[in-house]
Design brief:
T-fold, 27% strand, 10 helices, single chain
């Protein structure tokens, strides 16, 4: 496994290589306007970073380094991460974590409360159970679901922001930040672009997109929303500025057990895969919030409409009925549509 310094060096080197193909502009005002764009591998996907700034190269290197730093803190696939250390800790034992981990867990707790548990980062035991079931090709029993579910409770994860510690009060509770961390990390990467004077740009991480300002030509950013019946085609095109757009759904990631298709999103309340909309797109000012609410609405469907509106997020849900798309959206969502 790469050491932290080697991982950081590898990220910076990858970004530097990405710049090698760009035309070097001689005029300073041209350099200030011309966007730079680099794609790296991170968080199990491809991440694209674009920035328009006199310090564009420095800004993108800083954003990529921040992505690497936060992934090492929040990924459950890295043994020394904060997330992994919380999961293996004994109950009632405070775990010292970074301020970033405290922040992302506070976002998660807020959405858990607002969605009445439809979003829950302590869903780890159930996620592990259904992954095992998919590999074996056999659905878990009610007893197995009940056993795993007894370790899932978002209220049992206590975050002490003042002392930067996290304590769990249920033995065997594990956390899975996959439904909030990617958006959170993308948002913090955009903060790095802003810190280094970028006025336009974006960070796109596997479908979670954070847009900074407007495009270099002054127009809103355009983002396509796939048709869940045929993900290679677009059902919608949205126009946004200074917002995060996150889409979640069961049309790309799913498992088949005993000839039945199951969503990858687990409803922590029932212990079973969610049976909600085919796709949910959320637009919000903060990508971590948008990421979490995209998952919550994938569980709740129309049941979560009022709570989502109270949380100040706009949403669009697609249901497939008799091979026809049925769209349900928040009152303010139409302002993002390119052809309202």
């Amino acid at each position: 496994m790469l050491t932290s310094s080697k991982r950081r060096a590898a990220v910076v080197a990858a970004v530097a290589v990405g710049f090698a193909g760009f035309l070097i502009l001689s005029a300073r005002h041209q350099r200030a306007r011309a966007p730079r764009k680099v794609t790296i591998e991170a968080m199990g996907t491809f991440v694209t970073i674009q920035a328009s700034s006199p310090k564009a190269e420095e800004a993108i290197v800083a954003a990529a380094a921040e992505i690497d730093r936060l992934e090492r803190l929040l990924s459950s696939f890295i043994a020394e991460s904060d997330a992994s250390r919380i999961s293996v800790a004994a109950k009632d034992t405070p775990v010292a974590v970074s301020p970033a981990t405290v922040e992302v867990l506070q976002v998660a707790r807020k959405v858990s409360s607002e969605s009445r548990g439809a979003f829950d980062v302590t869903v780890g035991p159930l996620v592990a159970l259904w992954k095992k079931a998919a590999k074996a090709g056999k659905a878990p029993s009610d007893a197995e679901i009940g056993e795993a579910g007894s370790k899932v409770r978002w209220q049992a994860l206590h975050v002490d922001a003042e002392n930067s510690t996290v304590t769990k009060t249920v033995e065997g509770l594990t956390i899975d930040l996959g439904a909030v961390a990617k958006g959170y990390i993308a948002q913090r990467a955009v903060d790095e672009l802003v810190r280094l004077e970028a006025t336009s740009g974006f960070v796109e991480a596997g479908g979670d997109i954070v847009f900074l300002g407007v495009r270099p030509d002054g127009k809103p950013w355009s983002v396509g929303v796939s048709d869940p019946r045929n993900p290679d085609t677009l059902a919608e095109k949205l126009l946004v500025s200074d917002m995060a757009v996150v889409t979640s759904g069961n049309y790309r990631r799913f498992s088949v057990i005993d000839s039945k298709r199951y969503s990858h999103i687990i409803d922590a309340r029932t212990g079973r895969p969610a049976d909600g909309p085919a796709a949910v797109t959320v637009v919000a000012k903060d990508a971590g919030v948008a990421d979490a609410w995209a998952t919550a609405l994938s569980v709740l469907g129309q049941e979560g409409a009022e709570a989502a509106r109270e949380a100040d997020v706009e949403y669009m849900m697609y249901f497939v009925e008799d091979d026809e798309l049925v769209r349900v959206e928040s009152p303010g969502f139409s302002r993002f549509r390119s052809n309202p």
